[in-house]
Input
Amino acid sequence: MDIKTEVRNFLIDNFMMGLDPGELADRDSLLDKGIVDSTGVLELVGFLEENFEIKIEDEDLIPENLDSVDKIVAYVNKKQS
Amino acid sequence: MLVHQFLETNAEAYSYREALVHLEGRINYIDLERAANRLANFLIGSGVRPGDRVGILLDSSINYVISYFAVLKAGGVVVALNTATTSRIIKSVLSDCSASTLIVHKQYAHFLKDIIDDLESLETLIIDGHYEKLGRKKTLKAENFFNIQLDANPQRPSVSISPGDLASIIYTSGTTGNPKGVMLSHRNLEANTDSIVEYLNLTCEDKVMAILPFFYSYGNSLLLTHIRVGGCLVIDSRFAYPNVILELMSREKVTGFSGVPSTFAILMHKSRINDYRWEHLRYLTQAGGPMTPALTLKIMEAIPHVKIYVMYGQTEASARLSYLEPDRLLEKIGSIGKAIPGVTLTVKDESGNVCPPGVTGEIVAQGDNIMPGYWNQPQETAKVLKEDGLRTGDLARIDDDGYFYIVSRKSDMIKSGAHRISPKEIEEILAEHSDVVESAVIGVPDKILGENIKAVIVLKAGSKTTERDILRHCRINLPAFKVPKIVEFRESLPKTSSGKIKKHVLVEEHVE
Output
């Protein structure tokens, strides 16, 4: 499974239960869409660290890295390279 | 003074001082006043009369503040709704208070699609942004927020209301599961605002970082205290990214920051708070549940020059009931302090006698900030408003110096992050699942949130229902913050001889 599919599946399974997955475009802001809140971001961080074997530093907790599927994929790719 | 006169007074005294800073822009007092007047004049023209309820379904923003003061200027009663919501909750609240008007952001307008025809009292809808898919209801007038700001009269309207009239109804999760509307008059809000201003020593030089939602009483008190003194609010609800907020606080040179225990837990464990010098930060306030002494000490260590105010209150008291002076924080750690100016707090036993120091009883509060009651619920009101004041439901003792220490809460409300959550409401939703026989919802300790929601469920014999099925059912019917984080299936629940579920047994399993 590629990174994008894994991230999408995680978001859909954990934060969008019962909602239409089609409503989440890869560029959508997860905050503006009300998909994650402050604890949701921490859960997302835990998932990314465990699943992709990366360490997310506190200074990386910014929307530019984590606030959409596309941004998360780019961030994970950068950390893994 | 009436609450909207806070703004009117400062639009004259501090016309060109900045009142609000938000991603969408900055606005000074005179422009805020004129914008609120425009909307107020529109509301009056569309039929809002003194005492009419007007719903606001907006995130904390400049338009929220314009709407809040406009409703009051029109003589209306603000009913601010939590934006983490469902169609079902909106229908229940707007029907309960028979709101005639709703101001809604386009982002939340979709909640109305299936219920708009059921909202019988709703006559006018004001949409912040562009949204076309509504308006099936023939009698409904719809208008765009922006157009009102272009067209309406900016002169201050003249409406006759008095301090005893209602200003706001704040809905809280009731212990019965049905939301209860806490009625607050102009006098209630003014008394509490002035008291908070006094003990925090707020002035027009103060600038607070407002991450707390304005629809809760804590956020509402931030709004009112700063508008009262001619100060400034920096509004940003993206605390999910604490470093973004810290950077903004530093750039804007804020003097104050307010949070709940989970806010401070995130700041101390997951942010770059130690990378800044915080020269402009004067104070922090903490309310919304108990913060562990360990966390308090950690904050004191990180920013030793900043005053920390531990506070306690209830929506039924407009917001605030007590505070602990920062100078005595170490000496009295764990205490909620003493009554704020204008409030009397006592600890009483079940017969109504005042408890001596060291003896636990219920906190009873008196003051001009105490609500006149719950909207349309005289029986619920009578349970908490007695001759000697408001029964808070919180059990506490005082020490020999008169400082209050909360021992436990009488009700089984769960405090998770900034939210008070009724277990009953979640149990009612679980009961609607065809395979659930019974359930008990409890709060279990969580390092960041304070408490997490756990559902212990008994399923029908042979049921194939999974945890995921339960969570999906909850997510469809409840806002995200009310969905249980932990689900456990059991054969049976512990019960008393009369058949009542012994929740304390389930709670004790999680005591470390």
